[in-house]
Amino acid sequence: MTSPDYAHHFSVRNIPFGIASSAAHPKPQAATRLGNSVIFLNDCHTGGLFGVTEGLPKGVFANDTLNEFAALPSPIQRQVREAIQSTCRDGTPDASKFPSGSVEDITQVEMHMPVRVGDFADFSCSLIHGKNAGRIILNDARPPPAFFNFPLAYQGRASSVVVSGTDIERPMGQYRDKSAPMAANEPKPVVYGPSKAVDYELEFAAIIGRPLAMRQRLNAVDADAHIFGFVVLNDWSAVASDTDTMPNKLQDLRTVDDVSFPYVFEQNVTVPLKSGGVVRCNVYRPKTADPVPVLVTYGPYGKDIHYKDFIPKYSEVNPRHKSAHSAWETPDPGFWTEHGYAVVRADELGLGQSPGTLDTMSRGTTDAFVDVVEWAAEQSWSSGKVGLLGISYYAGSQWRVAARKPKGLSAIIPWEGMSDYYRDRCRHGGILSNGFIRFWWNRQVITNQYGRPGRAASNWGPDTIEGDLSEEELAANRQDQTIDNQKHHFRDEPYYASKEYDMGDIEVPLLSVGNWGGILLHLRGNVEGFTHAGSEFKYLRMITGRHDLPFYYDEEVEVQRSFLDAFLKGEDRVGWSQPGKVPPVSIVLRKGNVGFNDAEKEKAYQRREETEWPIARTQYTNYHLTPDFTLTDTPSTPIPKNKLTYRSLGTMQNSHLLQFTTPPFTHETEITGHIVAHLNISASPDPACPTVPSDIDLFLTLRYLGPDGKEVFYTGTAGDPVPLTKGWLRASLRKVNREHPKHREWLPHRDYTSRDVLSVIPGEVYAVDVEVWPTNVVVEKGGRVVLEVSSGDTQGSGIFLHDDPVDRSAEKLQGFNHLHFGPQFENYVTLPVIPPKEE
Hints:
Elements: E1 18-22, E2 29-34, E3 37-40, H1 41-46, H2 67-70, H3 74-85, E4 88-89, E5 92-93, E6 103-105, E7 109-112, E8 120-123, H4 127-138, E9 153-156, E10 172-176, E11 190-194, E12 198-208, H5 223-226, E13 227-240, E14 255-257, E15 264-272, E16 278-285, E17 292-299, H6 307-310, H7 333-338, E18 342-347, H8 363-378, E19 382-391, H9 393-402, E20 409-415, H10 421-426, E21 427-428, E22 431-432, H11 434-445, H12 471-476, H13 481-487, H14 494-497, E23 510-515, H15 523-532, E24 538-543, H16 554-569, E25 585-589, H17 599-602, E26 606-610, E27 619-625, E28 631-632, E29 642-647, E30 657-661, E31 669-684, E32 697-705, E33 714-715, E34 721-722, E35 725-730, E36 766-779, E37 784-790, H18 810-813, E38 816-821, E39 828-834
Parallel strand pairs: 17-18, 17-19, 19-20, 20-23, 23-24, 24-25
Antiparallel strand pairs: 1-2, 1-7, 2-3, 3-6, 4-5, 8-9, 10-11, 12-13, 14-15, 15-16, 16-18, 21-22, 25-26, 27-28, 27-39, 29-38, 30-37, 31-36, 31-38, 31-39, 32-35, 32-37, 33-34
Helix pairs in contact: 11-13
């Protein structure tokens, strides 16, 4: 009997198992292989080879997968292996010891998929593959930060695991047809077809034979009881490695003008990146030979789009901060160069004049920003000291960069800037905040993509100097935030996990400026960033007013300049760099009804300094909800079992809500700090609808009614009227991690991972704690506070809507929501009451 050559390094102690068939054994079944001999194990079992092995089911080897055998206790599997080993002499099987007909030559046998794969976890362990994947997906060949510690893993498609020898189908993708006849100066056309090359790995995999229950972890000490065996995988990547590159040929675009302006203006300076790409920046610097400190911004809104073209309300900006190069949410070069600073304003990758992949707020974006900071510190005109100063996007990015500790970074001022991408911006309480993302992406980001035609004609900055790109090329070179945030739901998914960082890694001096009216995007991030940063010198300053204007007020600019002078110039005229000299917290007290969007009237608000946040003397006071819609700090006798009902899926146009109101306050009371609401909720189906609800979305709003009974509105982000504050929670993500170091009773910590999802069953009552964003109000004598519980956005949401039809589908939410009362159902909101300071 002729056989193929067969050599291996395994002894007979390593018994393989598989599924095989042949002409004599047409039904696929369990088998083992010794040398070139394949032994069919069902024949062996019925022929008595395994003797009386207690617990070995009859017919277990007749199955077309090994799953049943692999799930058996390891002692049973060991007895089977030992019985097979006993048939061998010197590693060679003795055919006479096997039942007749059970042994066949390998050339007569076809191998099949040995197990039914229920789940497939793939760890990123190959450095080369990790770099390839990073280059393909993130335009960054560096491995993720955790790679050299505990590697990242993802859940792959079980159906993609096939037996060796199976033909694979090359993934379809976009690439340039290099064989197409084109003129020398024309790019090859983009075509859709099978990839020309793929990335692959040789992997070592463990088969988990004994299943794990949901949320059960496999501990190392128990591994032997669960691991059935090991296999070698040839893993080819489903992402083509021959990805398209930026089609434009890069040019040197730098120009210098040292005549037309009070400062030297360098436009389109190229900054090389460690990843191999480039970004373009404008440099504005004083006309001096002396090196100066540098203020850096890096963002998507166009370094060359003038403020007046970006938003008509530029007319309201402080005239001292208007110049030929003013730009939205960034420090004005005219002012800052006059006061001895250079300003570097960079176009983010894939935007403006910077080629590359547009992927806002990504790890690759942060990496590039770090490179720009370090580049600025090394220039001949730089003192080596770099500060970050900007609003909103130009503030939120500062936290992530500072945590990386780039060389030269000496101070940051994140002015109204979120610090937590998931919790602050994208998913409030787990609910997709799609309204603003959609508005922001379509108006302010994609309109400035590198290569987008027609920018100049639309008065949206200059056209791409290196040439326009086609729609296909533009689409191939961007990651769409509106799509990405809708597709991903949890913080442990790679999309969100890649944006995580440790706030404790921030060590540079920081001044975090938050706005009490920023209740839908940035407020929470400024407070949390200040609280958890590891900086020795860190300060929290609270303001009011429209999102963009206070940044340019004379009094606020002086705060910025004194802080930066202290840490970038060594000129500390206030005491920022002296421990204990400047109180760490400065808050504005919102007392009275001064209207909204009126900067002059808001000057009536007083400012007070504090030594810590939250304020140490806070008295966390529970205000109890009652079935008669009151809110009281003196709970009554046990309330009879009762419930209040409102419809689910409320909208701005059709609100469904409950409101609970305090009696008039008998004396002036300050409320400043974090708020949490404890509610007992349930859902029930609507008999008129075919679906049964499987989740509950909670929208909470805190409002203030003045002594005249009218609601007091405050200035929101866009100058719109907003209430005191808001909070949200998706009930299926109600799980609180009380062991987390950030958890507080007045600020519940949620991980929002896929492992934290809890079921919501109609009729079941669930106790939930809802985080409500921090606030301040001085409740006047006769004033009242209102807690609003709703099933959707209500007044004060503006463009920050949560109305995505997929995320908030009728299929999972349609029906009725209930708030339960009774002896075992206590509902209250905890308000941070601040007593006067002791003299």
